[in-house]
Task: inverse folding
């Protein structure tokens, strides 16, 4: 599907030196300790793409699919993320505005439910504008936190980490780190903690310690429900294998009102179309050739009320012939888009609270707490593992534990009885 895809070619993390061959500028960042790449490159011939993805083959696969699409990762190139950041401040774009207001209102609650001295790892961190407000709450509450920001948008990640580090340069409570890679890379990296004696980049985490994942901006909803469930389980399982407790704080848009949704996502305003069309330029960068001409496409959005699914398409405004040449200069791929034909670029669900709860339950997790903006119907959910609760209950109900507990109680009773006999 066109959403964020699990890379089929994911390689497990390996020594830093291998990653450093990809880009010279990474070296400087590694030395400064600001951002760490957490996965191996699979296609060094396409230096513009995130390390473990193969966007070139995903583009070709999408174009030849019966329901054609382009990978949504194309929206998160250096230009795309800049356009997205502009969009987040546009008055029409209610998701960011609503989430920002909620973060301002609840930041201290979010900080106080996160154990002091634990790890907070943000998935798809973007500009870190809202994050900075949450981290300030940790600072005000004098609650130590090791914050890790993960993103695939490399230049933006470096820039925003640098800004955040300046903002918190004098903080005694907040430490800041960047991780460059995809969600899948991050889950694989966490899993590697279970086998690696000295895990790279993370503080020595004692068994049982908590990692809280911050996943805001309704980014989880750029996946179909089974994909979202699979991603939550992947993190959950990686943490369990590393004997860490995993929790999530997730921002999720539940607005099912078509007029509100389509007012925010529509081609009638430039900020939105600029963001979406930037994906075609990034596709050309990846392919190393200008095969997409943005002027031959317009942007179209539709919202399906029943499934609560918003879809965003490129629509060919005339008959378009896409031809890509291989390194020998031969026509390697030829695809004709008829006038009006659509390519899906991204989708976003607006799950109800019940729909969201099902996704968590299917991943073996549960909603522990919920904060709602009633005007828009936007939610923040604190999600915990069902297993950890079940484990705790089980621990007190096994015959072995009952015997031990019984033994302790009996010993205390007999000691006090003997004591009383002596004093009588
Ligand atoms: C909708 S934006 C949200 C940004 C930010 N969290 C916010 O709330 O404004 C999605 C972010 O996730 C990042 N992203 C998208 N797909 C990703 C993936 N597969 N792995 C890691 N980051 C990803 C994008 O680069 C972008 O910064």
Result:
């Amino acid at each position: 599907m066109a959403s964020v895809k699990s890379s089929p070619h994911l390689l497990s993390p390996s020594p830093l030196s291998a990653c450093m061959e990809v880009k010279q500028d990474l070296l400087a960042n590694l030395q400064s300790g600001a951002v760490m790449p957490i996965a191996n490159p699979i296609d060094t011939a396409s230096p513009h793409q995130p390390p473990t993805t193969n966007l070139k083959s995903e583009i070709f696969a999408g174009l030849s699919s019966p329901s054609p699409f382009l990978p949504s990762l194309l929206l998160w190139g250096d230009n795309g993320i800049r356009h997205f950041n502009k969009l987040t401040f546009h008055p029409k774009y209610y998701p960011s505005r609503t989430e920002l207001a909620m973060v301002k209102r609840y930041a201290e609650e979010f900080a106080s439910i996160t154990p002091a001295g634990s790890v907070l790892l943000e998935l798809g961190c973007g500009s870190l504008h809202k994050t900075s407000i949450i981290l300030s709450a940790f600072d005000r509450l004098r609650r130590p936190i090791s914050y890790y920001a993960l993103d695939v948008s490399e230049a933006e990640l470096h820039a925003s980490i640098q800004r955040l580090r300046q903002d918190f340069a004098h903080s005694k409570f907040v430490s800041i780190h960047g991780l460059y890679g995809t969600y899948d890379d991050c889950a694989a990296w966490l899993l590697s903690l279970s086998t690696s004696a000295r895990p790279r980049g993370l503080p020595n985490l004692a068994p049982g310690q908590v990692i809280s994942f911050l996943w805001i901006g309704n980014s989880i909803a750029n996946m179909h429900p089974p994909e979202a469930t699979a991603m939550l389980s992947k993190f959950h399982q990686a943490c369990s294998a590393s004997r860490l407790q995993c929790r999530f704080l997730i921002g999720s848009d539940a607005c099912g009102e078509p007029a509100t949704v389509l007012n925010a996502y529509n081609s009638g305003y430039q900020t939105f179309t600029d963001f979406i069309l930037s994906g075609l330029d990034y596709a050309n960068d990846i392919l190393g050739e200008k095969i997409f001409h943005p002027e031959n496409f317009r942007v179209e959005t539709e919202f399906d009320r029943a499934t609560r699914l918003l879809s965003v398409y490129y629509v060919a405004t005339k008959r378009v012939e896409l031809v890509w040449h291989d390194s020998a200069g031969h026509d390697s791929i030829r695809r004709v888009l008829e006038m009006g034909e659509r390519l899906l670029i991204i989708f976003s669900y607006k799950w109800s609270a019940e729909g969201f709860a099902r996704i968590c339950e299917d991943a073996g997790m549960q909603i522990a707490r919920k904060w709602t903006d009633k005007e828009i119907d936007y939610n923040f959910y604190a999600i915990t593992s069902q297993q950890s609760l079940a484990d705790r209950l089980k621990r007190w109900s096994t015959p072995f534990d009952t015997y031990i507990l019984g033994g302790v109680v009996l010993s205390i009773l007999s000691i006090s009885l003997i004591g009383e006999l002596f004093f009588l």
